[in-house]
Specification:
Alpha-Beta Plaits, two-stranded antiparallel ribbon, 3 helices
């Protein structure tokens, strides 16, 4: 997408897009390892995607809409994992604060 951090000639393309300049991006190959429809309540659908680095999910939604002969966009986006890190294994802010307080107290 034009408002992305992809670089052309060493500069992020969003800088040109913000100035209203036309940005032409070449398609790049990406891999979709998993695409699962998790909820259908038309006109909304929810889906889960596992994909390669560099995949723009907003662009995927747009392409899906084009393939179906209709429009499509994201109304929400949640990254649930990146590499070995899983969102459901993340610590809460409260738990993190308690650990920091405990560490500071032990250093006295």
């Amino acid at each position: 997408p034009a408002h992305s951090a992809i670089k052309q000639q060493g500069k992020p393309v969003y800088l040109a897009a913000r100035k209203g300049e036309a940005v032409a991006l070449e398609p790049r190959p990406v891999t979709i390892y998993r695409f699962e429809l998790t909820k259908i309540n038309l006109p909304r659908i929810e889906f889960l995607v596992e994909c390669s680095t560099g995949t723009y999910i907003r662009s995927l939604a747009h392409d899906l809409g084009q393939a179906l002969g209709t429009g499509a966009y994201l109304s929400a986006l949640r990254r649930t994992a990146i590499g070995d890190f899983q969102a459901d294994a993340a610590e809460t802010v409260e738990s993190f604060e308690e650990k920091v307080k405990s560490l500071l107290a032990s250093e006295g």
